[in-house]
From TrEMBL:
This is DUF1648 domain-containing protein. Residues 149-196 form the DUF1648 domain. The keyword Metal-binding does not apply. PANTHER family: IMMUNITY PROTEIN SDPI (PTHR37810), MEMBRANE PROTEIN (PTHR37810:SF9). Pfam families: DUF1648, DUF5808. It comes from the Bacteria. The chain crosses the membrane at residues 6-25, 60-78, 84-102, 138-159, 187-207, 236-262, 268-289, 355-374. Residues 330-354 form the DUF5808 domain. It comes from Clostridium ragsdalei P11. Keywords: Membrane, Transmembrane, Transmembrane helix. InterPro entries: DUF1648, DUF5808, UCP032908.
Amino acid sequence: MKDNLFMCIYLFFIFVIILVINMLTPKFTRKEIVFGVRIPEDKIDSDEIKHIEAQFVKNNLIIGIPFIILFSVLNYSFLNVGMILFTTFAFVFIIFLIYLISNRAMKNLKSQKLWFQGKKQVVTVDTSFSRSKSNMLVSAWFFLIPAAIIIVNIILGYMNYDSLPYKVPTHWDFSGNVTGYQFKSRFLIWEMPITQIFTTFMFFIVYKGIGWSKQQISSIDPEASVKKNSIFRKSWSMYMVIFAVVTNLLLTVATVQIFRVFNVSSTFSYIIILAFVLVTILSSIVLAFKIGQGGGNIRFKSDGENVKPDFGDKDDDKCWVLGNSIYYNKNDPSLFVEKRFGIGWTINAGRPLGMAVYIGSIVIIIVTIIFAVFSGK
C-alpha cells in the first residue's frame, strides 16, 4: 500500500501541475491569438475577451479539481499500468474539452463583433529568413554532449557485464524491493543506450524543427517581430540541448543502478526522477512566461506605438481545425508552424508528410498503451 500511496500522491501532483499549466497557457500564447482564434491587436484588452479568459480559469477549477480527486482515488485503489494510462489520457482529454469551451466562446464573439470587417489584412514576409535562420539556433555541435553521455553508458555496460548475475534486477519499488528481472544478455548493455539514442534523436528533430518552422511576423511592427522571433527560437533551441543532456544523465542513473557501478538506492532514484520532472516543468514555465509564444512576451520600447484600428495581420482561422489545434493547409509548403494555444510548434496536416506524422503518432500511442497494459499483467 505504500507504493500505492506514493504513486497516488505523485500522479496527484502531476495532474495539479497539468491543470495549473492549462490555466496559465493564455499568458504564454501570442496576444493576438486568444484560445486559438486570431483577433485584431486593438481588441486584445476588450472586456469581452477578459470575461472569456476569467471563465476559462473558473472552468478549469470547477471541472478539473473534482476529476483530479476522482482519478487520484482510482489510482490508489486500483494501481496498475492500465489505470495510470487511463486516468492520464482521460485527464488530458478533459483539459482539452475545457479549452474547447473557451475556443467556441471566442469564435462566437468574433463572429458577432465582425472585428475583421473593413480591415486591411496583410501578410508580412522576411525575405532574409531562409539565409539567417541557421543563426537563430544555438550550434548543433552541442548535441555532442548527450552523444558523449551515451558512449559512457555503453562503456559502463561492457566494463561491468561480466560481474552481472544470471538474473539481473532491473526494476525496484519505492521500498527498494526488486519487482522485475531480466536474464543476463548482451542486450542489457544496449538497452539503455538505445533508449538514449532514440530520445536524443527526438530532441534533435525538435531542435531542427524550431529552425525549419514557418516564421510568423506581425505586420504592425515587422522589425521588432523578427527580433523577438529570433530570441524565441534561440532560447528554445538551447532548452532542447539542455533537456537532452539532463535526460541522458537521468537515464545514466538507471545504467549505474542496473550494472551496480556503485550503489544507488531506489529511493534516491525516485527522488532524482521527481526532481527531474519538477525542474523540467518549472523551467519550461519560467521560459514560457519570460518569452511567450513567438517572443510575444518580450517587450521593446516601441511596442504599442504602431497599432492601427484599420490595419492588421491576415485572418487565417480557416486553416485551423479541431478547436484551432490542428493546422491544415495544402497550399502552405511549411511542415512546422507555431501552435495556436500555448508554446511550441505543430505540424501542417495538409502536407503528406505531416499527415503521416499524425497517423504514425496515433499508431505509436495505441501500440504503447497496449504493450504497457499487457506487459504489466
